[in-house]
Amino acid sequence: MKTVKGFASATVGNVACGFDVLGFAITEPGDEVILTLSDRAHTDSPVSISAITGDGGALPLDPKKNTSSFVVLKFLEYIRAHKQIDFTGHISLELRKHLPLSSGMGSSAASAAAALIAANELMGLPCSKMELVHFAIEGERVACGSAHADNAAPAILGNFVLIRSYTPLDLITIPSPEHLYCSLVHPHTELRTAYARSVLPQEISLKTATQQWGNVGALVTGLLTSDYDLIGRSLVDVIAEPKRAPLIPGFFEVKQAALDSGALGCSIAGSGPSIFAFSSSEKTALAVGNAMKEAFLHSKAHLQSDMWVSPICKEGARIL
Ligand code: HSE
Protein backbone atom coordinates (compact mmCIF):
# COMPACT_ATOMS: atom_id res chain seq x y z
CA MET A 1 0.00 0.00 0.00
CA LYS A 2 1.26 3.45 -0.90
CA THR A 3 -0.56 6.74 -0.31
CA VAL A 4 -0.02 10.11 -2.02
CA LYS A 5 -1.84 13.41 -1.47
CA GLY A 6 -2.18 15.90 -4.33
CA PHE A 7 -3.27 19.53 -4.09
CA ALA A 8 -4.42 22.00 -6.73
CA SER A 9 -5.74 25.48 -6.17
CA ALA A 10 -8.52 27.66 -7.51
CA THR A 11 -8.10 29.22 -10.93
CA VAL A 12 -9.67 32.11 -12.75
CA GLY A 13 -10.54 31.51 -16.39
CA ASN A 14 -10.92 34.13 -19.14
CA VAL A 15 -9.19 36.95 -17.14
CA ALA A 16 -11.78 39.34 -18.65
CA CYS A 17 -10.78 39.50 -22.32
CA GLY A 18 -9.32 36.00 -22.87
CA PHE A 19 -12.46 33.88 -23.18
CA ASP A 20 -11.36 30.21 -23.12
CA VAL A 21 -7.72 31.16 -23.88
CA LEU A 22 -6.35 32.75 -20.70
CA GLY A 23 -6.41 31.73 -17.05
CA PHE A 24 -4.34 31.91 -13.87
CA ALA A 25 -3.99 30.08 -10.57
CA ILE A 26 -4.12 31.55 -7.09
CA THR A 27 -2.38 30.02 -4.08
CA GLU A 28 -5.46 29.10 -2.03
CA PRO A 29 -8.04 27.69 -1.52
CA GLY A 30 -7.71 24.34 -3.28
CA ASP A 31 -8.86 20.73 -3.43
CA GLU A 32 -6.99 17.70 -2.09
CA VAL A 33 -7.02 14.21 -3.52
CA ILE A 34 -5.59 11.25 -1.62
CA LEU A 35 -4.75 8.19 -3.69
CA THR A 36 -3.96 4.82 -2.16
CA LEU A 37 -2.37 2.18 -4.34
CA SER A 38 -2.76 -1.52 -3.63
CA ASP A 39 -1.68 -4.60 -5.57
CA ARG A 40 -5.06 -6.19 -5.34
CA ALA A 41 -6.95 -5.83 -8.62
CA HIS A 42 -10.53 -4.62 -8.29
CA THR A 43 -13.21 -6.51 -10.15
CA ASP A 44 -15.01 -3.51 -11.69
CA SER A 45 -12.54 -0.70 -12.21
CA PRO A 46 -8.84 0.07 -11.55
CA VAL A 47 -10.00 3.20 -9.68
CA SER A 48 -12.72 3.49 -7.05
CA ILE A 49 -13.86 6.40 -4.88
CA SER A 50 -13.63 5.72 -1.15
CA ALA A 51 -14.94 9.11 0.07
CA ILE A 52 -15.82 12.63 -0.99
CA THR A 53 -16.09 15.39 1.61
CA GLY A 54 -17.02 19.05 1.27
CA ASP A 55 -19.41 18.66 -1.66
CA GLY A 56 -22.65 18.28 0.29
CA GLY A 57 -23.25 14.95 -1.46
CA ALA A 58 -23.49 16.60 -4.87
CA LEU A 59 -20.70 14.79 -6.73
CA PRO A 60 -21.05 11.32 -8.28
CA LEU A 61 -19.27 8.34 -6.71
CA ASP A 62 -19.17 6.41 -9.98
CA PRO A 63 -15.48 6.51 -11.02
CA LYS A 64 -16.41 7.03 -14.69
CA LYS A 65 -18.65 10.00 -13.89
CA ASN A 66 -16.61 11.80 -11.23
CA THR A 67 -14.10 14.20 -12.78
CA SER A 68 -11.21 13.35 -10.45
CA SER A 69 -11.43 9.57 -10.93
CA PHE A 70 -12.31 9.88 -14.64
CA VAL A 71 -9.04 11.73 -15.34
CA VAL A 72 -7.06 9.09 -13.41
CA LEU A 73 -8.68 6.36 -15.56
CA LYS A 74 -7.68 8.31 -18.71
CA PHE A 75 -4.15 8.74 -17.33
CA LEU A 76 -3.84 4.97 -16.67
CA GLU A 77 -5.05 4.18 -20.22
CA TYR A 78 -2.49 6.61 -21.61
CA ILE A 79 0.51 5.28 -19.67
CA ARG A 80 -0.45 1.75 -20.70
CA ALA A 81 -0.55 2.72 -24.39
CA HIS A 82 2.32 5.22 -24.52
CA LYS A 83 4.66 4.57 -21.57
CA GLN A 84 4.52 0.78 -21.47
CA ILE A 85 3.25 0.79 -17.87
CA ASP A 86 0.65 -1.94 -17.50
CA PHE A 87 -1.09 -1.20 -14.22
CA THR A 88 -2.82 -4.24 -12.74
CA GLY A 89 -3.43 -3.02 -9.17
CA HIS A 90 -6.08 -0.77 -7.70
CA ILE A 91 -6.25 2.92 -6.78
CA SER A 92 -8.63 4.10 -4.11
CA LEU A 93 -9.43 7.84 -4.33
CA GLU A 94 -10.53 10.21 -1.58
CA LEU A 95 -11.57 13.71 -2.66
CA ARG A 96 -11.52 16.54 -0.12
CA LYS A 97 -13.32 19.45 -1.72
CA HIS A 98 -12.57 22.89 -0.39
CA LEU A 99 -13.70 24.79 -3.48
CA PRO A 100 -17.38 25.56 -3.92
CA LEU A 101 -19.13 23.91 -6.88
CA SER A 102 -20.42 25.97 -9.81
CA SER A 103 -18.52 28.99 -8.49
CA GLY A 104 -16.34 30.11 -11.40
CA MET A 105 -13.28 29.22 -9.31
CA GLY A 106 -12.21 26.22 -11.38
CA SER A 107 -13.56 23.71 -8.88
CA SER A 108 -13.69 20.72 -11.24
CA ALA A 109 -10.27 21.56 -12.71
CA ALA A 110 -8.72 21.70 -9.21
CA SER A 111 -10.06 18.23 -8.34
CA ALA A 112 -8.81 16.83 -11.65
CA ALA A 113 -5.39 18.48 -11.30
CA ALA A 114 -4.93 17.28 -7.71
CA ALA A 115 -5.88 13.73 -8.74
CA LEU A 116 -3.52 13.75 -11.73
CA ILE A 117 -0.49 15.10 -9.88
CA ALA A 118 -1.02 12.39 -7.24
CA ALA A 119 -1.55 9.62 -9.82
CA ASN A 120 1.59 10.63 -11.70
CA GLU A 121 3.60 10.53 -8.47
CA LEU A 122 2.12 7.15 -7.53
CA MET A 123 3.12 5.64 -10.87
CA GLY A 124 6.72 6.95 -10.77
CA LEU A 125 6.33 10.24 -12.72
CA PRO A 126 5.78 8.83 -16.22
CA CYS A 127 4.20 12.07 -17.52
CA SER A 128 5.23 15.71 -17.65
CA LYS A 129 2.86 18.35 -16.27
CA MET A 130 2.20 19.41 -19.86
CA GLU A 131 0.96 15.87 -20.66
CA LEU A 132 -1.25 15.85 -17.55
CA VAL A 133 -3.07 18.95 -18.80
CA HIS A 134 -4.62 16.88 -21.63
CA PHE A 135 -6.41 14.60 -19.15
CA ALA A 136 -7.52 17.51 -16.97
CA ILE A 137 -9.14 19.11 -20.02
CA GLU A 138 -11.02 15.86 -20.72
CA GLY A 139 -12.24 16.08 -17.12
CA GLU A 140 -13.78 19.47 -17.89
CA ARG A 141 -15.82 17.86 -20.64
CA VAL A 142 -17.21 15.39 -18.06
CA ALA A 143 -17.85 18.15 -15.52
CA CYS A 144 -19.62 20.71 -17.71
CA GLY A 145 -19.78 19.44 -21.28
CA SER A 146 -17.08 21.73 -22.63
CA ALA A 147 -13.37 20.92 -22.87
CA HIS A 148 -12.07 24.42 -22.13
CA ALA A 149 -8.49 24.59 -20.82
CA ASP A 150 -8.34 27.98 -19.12
CA ASN A 151 -8.90 26.47 -15.65
CA ALA A 152 -7.34 23.02 -16.19
CA ALA A 153 -4.03 24.31 -17.58
CA PRO A 154 -3.22 26.86 -14.83
CA ALA A 155 -4.48 24.41 -12.16
CA ILE A 156 -1.67 22.06 -13.19
CA LEU A 157 1.00 24.44 -14.47
CA GLY A 158 0.46 27.47 -12.22
CA ASN A 159 1.08 31.08 -13.35
CA PHE A 160 -0.94 32.57 -16.19
CA VAL A 161 -1.48 30.21 -19.11
CA LEU A 162 -2.34 31.34 -22.62
CA ILE A 163 -3.92 28.74 -24.89
CA ARG A 164 -2.63 29.69 -28.33
CA SER A 165 -4.32 26.68 -29.92
CA TYR A 166 -6.57 23.81 -28.83
CA THR A 167 -5.84 21.49 -31.76
CA PRO A 168 -3.03 20.83 -31.43
CA LEU A 169 -2.86 21.99 -27.82
CA ASP A 170 -0.29 24.78 -27.56
CA LEU A 171 0.07 26.30 -24.09
CA ILE A 172 2.24 29.23 -23.12
CA THR A 173 2.88 29.94 -19.45
CA ILE A 174 3.33 33.58 -18.53
CA PRO A 175 4.92 34.50 -15.21
CA SER A 176 3.13 37.04 -13.06
CA PRO A 177 4.41 40.53 -12.27
CA GLU A 178 5.85 40.48 -8.75
CA HIS A 179 3.31 42.77 -7.09
CA LEU A 180 0.15 41.55 -8.79
CA TYR A 181 -2.54 40.40 -6.34
CA CYS A 182 -5.94 38.91 -6.98
CA SER A 183 -9.03 39.54 -4.87
CA LEU A 184 -11.51 36.76 -5.49
CA VAL A 185 -15.02 37.04 -4.10
CA HIS A 186 -17.47 34.16 -4.19
CA PRO A 187 -21.11 35.08 -3.50
CA HIS A 188 -23.20 32.33 -1.96
CA THR A 189 -25.07 31.41 -5.10
CA GLU A 190 -24.40 28.95 -7.92
CA LEU A 191 -24.11 29.46 -11.66
CA ARG A 192 -23.56 26.38 -13.78
CA THR A 193 -20.84 26.72 -16.41
CA ALA A 194 -22.99 24.92 -19.02
CA TYR A 195 -25.76 27.48 -18.51
CA ALA A 196 -23.38 30.46 -18.43
CA ARG A 197 -21.98 29.23 -21.76
CA SER A 198 -25.43 28.81 -23.28
CA VAL A 199 -26.15 32.55 -23.03
CA LEU A 200 -23.09 33.47 -25.11
CA PRO A 201 -23.36 34.42 -28.77
CA GLN A 202 -22.06 31.88 -31.30
CA GLU A 203 -20.96 34.67 -33.62
CA ILE A 204 -19.57 38.13 -32.96
CA SER A 205 -18.97 41.15 -35.18
CA LEU A 206 -15.58 42.07 -36.55
CA LYS A 207 -15.72 45.27 -34.47
CA THR A 208 -16.26 43.28 -31.25
CA ALA A 209 -13.53 40.78 -32.14
CA THR A 210 -11.09 43.61 -32.87
CA GLN A 211 -11.70 45.17 -29.45
CA GLN A 212 -11.29 41.83 -27.71
CA TRP A 213 -8.03 40.71 -29.34
CA GLY A 214 -6.57 44.18 -28.86
CA ASN A 215 -7.14 43.74 -25.13
CA VAL A 216 -5.79 40.17 -25.02
CA GLY A 217 -2.55 41.22 -26.71
CA ALA A 218 -2.23 44.24 -24.43
CA LEU A 219 -2.95 42.21 -21.29
CA VAL A 220 -0.24 39.68 -22.16
CA THR A 221 2.16 42.54 -22.88
CA GLY A 222 1.26 44.15 -19.54
CA LEU A 223 1.94 40.90 -17.71
CA LEU A 224 5.28 40.36 -19.42
CA THR A 225 6.48 43.92 -18.83
CA SER A 226 4.93 44.36 -15.34
CA ASP A 227 3.00 47.34 -16.68
CA TYR A 228 0.21 47.51 -14.09
CA ASP A 229 -1.65 50.37 -15.80
CA LEU A 230 -1.72 48.47 -19.07
CA ILE A 231 -2.97 45.35 -17.25
CA GLY A 232 -5.81 47.44 -15.79
CA ARG A 233 -6.71 49.06 -19.13
CA SER A 234 -6.81 45.66 -20.81
CA LEU A 235 -9.18 43.96 -18.36
CA VAL A 236 -12.12 44.63 -20.66
CA ASP A 237 -14.45 41.90 -21.90
CA VAL A 238 -16.90 42.91 -24.64
CA ILE A 239 -18.04 39.34 -25.38
CA ALA A 240 -18.89 37.25 -22.30
CA GLU A 241 -19.24 39.84 -19.51
CA PRO A 242 -22.16 41.77 -21.08
CA LYS A 243 -24.16 38.53 -21.45
CA ARG A 244 -23.25 36.99 -18.11
CA ALA A 245 -23.32 40.05 -15.84
CA PRO A 246 -27.15 39.98 -15.60
CA LEU A 247 -26.88 36.39 -14.25
CA ILE A 248 -24.86 37.63 -11.25
CA PRO A 249 -26.92 39.65 -8.75
CA GLY A 250 -25.00 42.80 -7.80
CA PHE A 251 -22.30 42.40 -10.46
CA PHE A 252 -22.18 46.07 -11.49
CA GLU A 253 -22.13 47.35 -7.89
CA VAL A 254 -19.37 44.89 -6.98
CA LYS A 255 -17.26 45.85 -9.99
CA GLN A 256 -17.72 49.57 -9.26
CA ALA A 257 -16.77 49.01 -5.59
CA ALA A 258 -13.57 47.24 -6.67
CA LEU A 259 -12.59 50.05 -9.05
CA ASP A 260 -13.45 52.75 -6.49
CA SER A 261 -11.17 51.01 -3.97
CA GLY A 262 -8.17 51.13 -6.26
CA ALA A 263 -8.35 47.89 -8.26
CA LEU A 264 -6.54 47.86 -11.60
CA GLY A 265 -9.53 46.10 -13.13
CA CYS A 266 -12.34 43.69 -12.33
CA SER A 267 -14.41 41.11 -14.15
CA ILE A 268 -16.25 37.80 -13.82
CA ALA A 269 -14.10 34.86 -12.66
CA GLY A 270 -14.52 32.20 -15.34
CA SER A 271 -18.21 31.66 -15.93
CA GLY A 272 -19.15 33.25 -12.57
CA PRO A 273 -20.75 33.96 -10.19
CA SER A 274 -17.40 34.74 -8.48
CA ILE A 275 -15.78 38.04 -9.38
CA PHE A 276 -12.07 38.80 -9.41
CA ALA A 277 -10.08 42.03 -9.31
CA PHE A 278 -6.38 42.75 -9.74
CA SER A 279 -4.40 45.18 -7.60
CA SER A 280 -0.75 46.18 -7.54
CA SER A 281 -0.27 45.58 -3.80
CA GLU A 282 -1.55 43.17 -1.18
CA LYS A 283 -2.88 46.04 0.94
CA THR A 284 -4.98 47.43 -1.91
CA ALA A 285 -6.17 43.92 -2.85
CA LEU A 286 -7.42 43.43 0.71
CA ALA A 287 -9.31 46.73 0.69
CA VAL A 288 -10.71 45.91 -2.77
CA GLY A 289 -11.85 42.43 -1.66
CA ASN A 290 -13.58 43.83 1.43
CA ALA A 291 -15.33 46.49 -0.65
CA MET A 292 -16.52 43.82 -3.10
CA LYS A 293 -17.85 41.70 -0.24
CA GLU A 294 -19.72 44.71 1.17
CA ALA A 295 -21.16 45.50 -2.24
CA PHE A 296 -22.55 41.97 -2.61
CA LEU A 297 -24.14 42.28 0.82
CA HIS A 298 -25.71 45.66 0.08
CA SER A 299 -26.89 44.71 -3.40
CA LYS A 300 -30.56 43.89 -3.98
CA ALA A 301 -29.93 40.17 -3.46
CA HIS A 302 -28.08 40.78 -0.13
CA LEU A 303 -25.57 38.05 -0.89
CA GLN A 304 -23.13 36.75 1.68
CA SER A 305 -19.76 35.93 0.17
CA ASP A 306 -16.29 34.53 0.82
CA MET A 307 -13.16 36.39 -0.16
CA TRP A 308 -9.54 35.44 -0.81
CA VAL A 309 -6.58 37.68 -1.50
CA SER A 310 -3.68 35.95 -3.19
CA PRO A 311 -0.66 36.44 -5.39
CA ILE A 312 -0.57 34.35 -8.56
CA CYS A 313 0.43 30.74 -7.78
CA LYS A 314 3.78 29.96 -9.41
CA GLU A 315 3.88 26.24 -8.76
CA GLY A 316 0.57 24.78 -9.91
CA ALA A 317 -0.61 21.36 -8.72
CA ARG A 318 1.71 19.75 -6.17
CA ILE A 319 2.22 16.84 -3.81
CA LEU A 320 1.54 17.62 -0.15
N1 HSE B 1 -13.73 29.83 -20.14
C1 HSE B 1 -14.73 29.17 -19.34
C2 HSE B 1 -16.04 29.92 -19.52
C3 HSE B 1 -14.31 29.21 -17.90
O1 HSE B 1 -16.01 31.14 -19.48
O2 HSE B 1 -17.07 29.29 -19.71
C4 HSE B 1 -15.24 28.48 -16.98
O3 HSE B 1 -14.79 28.67 -15.63
TrEMBL record:
Which cellular compartments is it found in?
Cytoplasm
**What keywords sit in the KW lines?**
Amino-acid biosynthesis, ATP-binding, Cytoplasm, Kinase, Nucleotide-binding, Threonine biosynthesis, Transferase
Q: Which domain of life is it from?
A: Bacteria
- The record places domain GHMP kinase N-terminal at 73-158
GO CC terms, sorted: cytoplasm
Gene Ontology MF: a single term: ATP binding
Catalytically driven reaction(s): L-homoserine + ATP = O-phospho-L-homoserine + ADP + H(+)
Per UniProt, the enzyme's principal EC class comes to transferase
Record-listed ATP binding positions: 100-110
Q: Which residues form the signal peptide?
A: none
Q: Quote the pathway field.
A: Amino-acid biosynthesis; L-threonine biosynthesis; L-threonine from L-aspartate: step 4/5
Q: Which Pfam families match?
A: GHMP_kinases_C, GHMP_kinases_N
EC number(s) recorded for this UniProt protein = 2.7.1.39
Q: What does this protein do?
A: Catalyzes the ATP-dependent phosphorylation of L-homoserine to L-homoserine phosphate.
Protein family per UniProt: Belongs to the GHMP kinase family. Homoserine kinase subfamily.
Name of this protein: Homoserine kinase
Q: Which organism is it from?
A: Pelodictyon phaeoclathratiforme (strain DSM 5477 / BU-1)
